[in-house]
Amino acid sequence: MNIYNFLVSQDIAAHCEEIGHIFNPLEMAIIVALSEKTMKEKHMAWREIVSEYPDMPIHGSLNFKARDSLHDYLYDFISREEITLESFLQSDSHNDYRFTAVGYDNGHKESESVIFINTYFEEARAKFEKYQHVLDNEILSYIVVEKMIDEDHTAKIYINRSGEIEEIGGSIFGGPDRLEDIFFHLPVPFEKGDLVELCDGTPGVLQDIPHWWNTERLSYADFISGKRGDGTDMCAYGYFINNEGWLMIDAYPCALSSLRYFKGELLGQERFLKYLSQFKKNKDENLDWLINVFCKFKAEVEQEKINGLFGEWYYSL
After folding, report:
1. Max CA distance (Å), the chain
2. How confident is the model at residue 148 (pLDDT cuts 50, 70, 90)?
3. CA quadruple 25, 31, 37, 38: dihedral sign
4. Helices and strands (DSSP H and E) totals, the chain
5. Alpha-helix residue ranges (DSSP H) falling in the chain
6. Residue 61 · residue 51 · CB < 8 Å
7. Could you give the CA distance from residue 7 to residue 1 in angstroms, rounded to a whole number?
8. pLDDT at 287 over 90
9. Contact 25, 55 (CB under 8 A)
10. Cα-Cα end-to-end distance for the chain
């Protein structure tokens, strides 16, 4: 199995392949769980791990109970998902369904929901296709279908733009003991100050990742061993420009496995991030210089807003 193909970030995949990093079977299983592959592709990969790679225990962590056998866990998890999906798609009963289309427009998450009462799943899905205008197909990312089991329980499936099922969730299936809850060592090529995509394509300047934790409170070795933390701690943090034009830090975490270099064009006030990256990496410039650069770009953006609102006649008053 070429496990590098399952890594979300192509930059991380290329780095791991270049240094020849070998993942153990548990780490491979986690990478598959974190991947953007369909549920069918994940099941095939996990079955290959069970059949082609040696078994090993799963160490416990904050949200994952220790297991004696990775193989047994994967077998049980696959069976559980397949049974849940079969029940979800059963065509012999009426249920209530909520279809939610989710997309991203210029980095901002948008969603619209339609509820179908007392109907079959396929009927609800056919009806929903008529409502897909609620989100532009160009920005449509995925669809969440929620099935109401009773007053307290729901089941969910996540469907990608190609109509394939990516994931199963909901209160009847969620909770602890999912592979995504395990912290593991993932080699990355990034350095502090790199210009990266923090989340949904948002450009930012990298400030912190778990690899650099080496204090009494935050020890990278403790997280790898499972002594503390879980998979939610595998995040990258950095500076970014918010919607109001202010510079923010450590408020827009990104999953470490999806972190990648920013290769797009910086527009408007985000142009400042190039100089912030230079400042963080080289420290050749002083803080006064950096503040002046920020103010320059912010003033330019504000001026452009005024021009858009009032036009050239504003200046002739």
Report:
1. 78
2. confident
3. positive
4. 8, 11
5. 10-19, 25-34, 39-52, 70-88, 121-129, 220-225, 272-282, 287-310
6. no
7. 13
8. no
9. yes
10. 70
CA dist 276 and 205 (Å) reads: 7
44-91 residue pLDDT tens? 999 999 999 999 999 988 888 999 999 999 999 999 888 888 877 776
- CA geometry: angle at 180 spanning 242 and 42, to 5°? 110
φ/ψ of 267, rounded to 5, equals -120, 155
DSSP at 241: E
d(CA 193, CA 207): 6
pTM for the model stands at 0.82
Q: What integer pLDDT is reported at residue 131 of this predicted model?
A: 63
Burial class of residue 264 in the structure, from the number of CB atoms within 10 Å of its CB (0-12 exposed, 13-18 middle, 19+ buried): exposed
Between vectors from CA 139 to CA 135 and to CA 144, what angle results, nearest 5°? 65
Is the CA virtual torsion 105, 109, 110, 115 positive or negative?
A: positive
Closest to 121 (Cα-Cα) out of 157, 173, 152: 157
Helix intervals (H) in 236-286: 272-282
Is 111 buried (19+), middle (13-18) or exposed (0-12) by CB count in 10 A?
A: middle
Listed residue (270, 239, 269) closest to 254, CA to CA: 239
Backbone φ and ψ of 36, nearest 5°: -100, 20
Average pLDDT over residues 252-263: 90
| CB neighbours of residue 240 within 10 Å | 24
- What are the structure tokens assigned to 58, written together? 């799963």
Q: How does residue 139 score in pLDDT terms, banded at 50, 70 and 90?
A: low
Predicted confidence at residue 316, as pLDDT, reads 47
Tokens standing for residue 82:
């397949």
